[in-house]
Amino acid sequence: MKTKRIFLILLAASMLATSGCAALRKDKAPSADEEPVAERPAGPVIEPELDRRDVKRPRIDTEDWEISGFVGALSVEDFGTELIYGGRLGYHVSEDIYLEGEYAWSQISDSNFRRIGAPLFDSEDEDLTSYSLSIGYNVLPGEVFVGSGWARASSMYITFGAGNTSFVGEDNVTFLAGFGLRTLVSDWFSLRLEARDRIFESDLLGDNEWKHNFELTLSMGVFF
């Protein structure tokens, strides 16, 4: 009897151990290798819907030559302010640098000296002509806005040059320095507002002095 009781106890303990291991195996999470691989969709999840724009390339003239005419005011030291006219021919070496030749015409008057009985010229008005070669550099490219719906490409530039100024039978070596704003109204038409100083040496009043002659001009140009 005692042996039979011991056998039954051992059998019950073995059955409990077996059922516990089975429960543990059932609750245990499957490993990464045993996880089922989800079936991936054949195409993208989200189909992008993009509105394609019709891009129109700007028709910007690629010609390097620019011819322009200008008018403005020239203040000749000791002789007052007169109108100045002229023309320019420029070659744009790159987007930033250009070379330019200029011919200008104005007049000077000794009317102030005639009032005190000391005329300097044979006639009251004398022609003044000038020619020069300059180099310009675009320092601040950008745009000019007029209102909210009109914008045009533009650039601030500086210019330096040298040439000759002739008046009253004298030829004077002239140096030029200035700055301006160029605006492209269209792909071939430009407007420029420019201020410059024409510097030359003169002895018309007896002393040989460097004269500073300031000018402000507005020019219209065509690219070709």
Q: Could you walk me through the main structural features you see in this protein, from its secondary elements to its overall organization?
A:
This protein has an 8-stranded antiparallel barrel with strand order 1-2-3-4-5-6-7-8. The protein contains 2 helices and 8 strands. It has helices at 2-27, 111-115; strands at 65-76, 80-92, 97-109, 125-145, 151-167, 170-184, 189-202, 209-223. It has a single domain (65-223), classed as Porin, CATH 2.40.160. The longest helix has 26 residues, at 2-27. The protein is mainly β.
Concise structural overview:
The protein has helices spanning 2-27, 111-115, and strands at residues 65-76, 80-92, 97-109, 125-145, 151-167, 170-184, 189-202, 209-223. The longest helix has 26 residues, at 2-27. The protein has two helices and eight strands.
